[in-house]
Amino acid sequence: MKYIQAKEVGEEVLITIQKGEEIKEYKIPTIANRDEPGKAALGIYVRTLNWHPLLPLKIDIETGPVIGPSAGMMFVLEILDRLLPENLTGGYRVAGTGTITIDGKVGGIGGIKQKVIAAEQAEIDYILVPEENYGEAVQAAGRINVVSVRDLDEALVFLQSLERTAGYGRRADVMRQGTFSFCI
Description:
By secondary structure, the chain is an alpha/beta fold. The protein has helices spanning 2-5, 72-83, 112-121, 134-140, 152-161, and strands spanning 12-19, 22-29, 31-32, 40-41, 94-96, 99-100, 106-107, 126-130, 145-149, 180-182.
């Protein structure tokens, strides 16, 4: 990502693709990053063909107009929050952003300054951010607590460390609304 962002918008990047035994190289021009127009990006979306996770229950996430992988970590945390008996946020307002890999690694995103500012305006207590975005996030923060995470385990350890506020901790019998806010 840093290699591509160091290029000028419109400058070509050499991409090598391997499919089976066949290897091809392509020169692809960079485009302006949607979140940070002065930085270069590639206009491609990569996914594993025909891979679908096998889950023990049906999970539907209605994302509305949201596209891209920046909410990955927060989707995982919200699903865990609904499946576990404990309220992961301890009653605090927690937002976050970051891609997530199948092994739980949290990856960087674009537009971190805007996401921190939006979370602060929404009176969020904590925002979880990918480690590689931490410095920029702290610079944009005023009163909000910015928490750097490298992987899902670090996010969960942080959430477990929060002091439980009155009325939270154990889930009520009624299924509650999500307790996480998304900054995607």
